[in-house]
Amino acid sequence: MNLEINRVSNQLRGISEPGAIQPKHGADLGGIQKAGSTDDKKADFANAVKNYVSKVDDLQQTSNMSIKDLLSGKNEDINTVVSQVAKADMSFKLLVGVRNKLIEAYKQTMNMPL
After folding, report:
1. What does pTM read for this prediction?
2. Number of domains in the chain
3. Which terminus of the chain faces fewer neighbouring Cβ atoms within 10 Å, N or C?
4. pLDDT by residue (tens digit) across 25-55?
């Protein structure tokens, strides 16, 4: 599962890499004025995504440790283990869903006529 989280994280980072298609600086925006610093908004969004990916990874690691503890006999409460595994699974599914929506929105934006 950790490999999957790393792959999702890398794909999310790939959308905002410097090599991605972006408008040229000083391009005519058709009279539209910027409503604030876009760098701040990008940083906030990037931090939010990184924080959520980090939380999902922590849940996955906690889930894996609880499974190992159950198998080794350190923990005998199977309900807690099942709960942690379910929580990690739901968080990962939500992360993948958000990633899919972001990619879909990016593709739709790129296909817009100018």
Report:
1. 0.61
2. 1
3. C
4. 444 444 444 555 677 887 888 899 899 999 9
